[in-house]
């Protein structure tokens, strides 16, 4: 059964969609990927062991796991990650052979005119 939303309706868990993504000319997959990474980073904010020595919050997320969450191929995920990195929405830092990359989310502020 479907109910209408009311003032006291409990909402299911959700992910935030930063409004600046609406103005970006990137694929919907890249946008969804950024949202997923940002959601994971919000959890890392609460745990001090997920920040580097500069206080920057990072996450670990394997390509395989991201592909599973997005229901996309690993190649599609790699392409979307490259787009996010090119747009400076994320930064990836290698940790050495056989180690996953640290993924840092960045926040961009757009000023509407």
Automatic annotation (TrEMBL):
InterPro entries linked: RepA_N, WH-like_DNA-bd_sf, WH_DNA-bd_sf
Matches recorded under SUPFAM superfamilies: Winged helix' DNA-binding domain
Start and end residues of each Replication initiator A N-terminal domain: 13-78
A Pfam short name: RepA_N
Gene3D superfamilies hit by this protein: Winged helix-like DNA-binding domain superfamily/Winged helix DNA-binding domain
Name of the molecule in the record: Replication initiator A N-terminal domain-containing protein
